């Protein structure tokens, strides 16, 4: 039981530390209000079975790779696969 509790705590801590490094989703209004600098955009395509959380995590990772701290999803949709586009800001 003690090992299970330790494992749960370690996994939870890992999740929080990873999300702290990831780019954060914001709104277009927040980007404008805070005068964030646009550094480009990112696109992705995932299987239609991907969850909205999977899409946001993938866009966040792509925004990180582009050097951004924030991203705004500007398009999302598709039938057999989900396609999404986000603007990246720093």
TrEMBL record:
Domain YdgH/BhsA/McbA-like: 36-90
Superkingdom as given in the UniProt entry: Bacteria
Keyword line: Signal
Signal sequence segment: 1-22
Protein name per the record: YdgH/BhsA/McbA-like domain-containing protein
